[in-house]
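Project standup — Tuesday

K.O.: blocked on the structure for the chain from last sprint. Re-posting the sequence here as requested.
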Amino acid sequence: MPKMKTKKSAAKRYSFTGTGKVKYKKQNLRHILTKKSSKRKRNLRHAGILSPDNVPVIKKRLLPYG
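H.V.: unblocked you, prediction finished:
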């Protein structure tokens, strides 16, 4: 059985925490920042945690050895 390939696009977007949760960078902080409030931009800086429902898909299909 050959090794499963990691989806490289997913590897760049998601990472795992020590407890097995999936962490990702939030969107909407790249451009057109003048119309967004400071509070909104500040909250977008922090990493997001993926909901537990979607974790098996990421672990099995996209990042099999993560």
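K.O.: great, moving the ticket to review. DSSP finds three helices and three strands in the chain. The mean pLDDT is 95.
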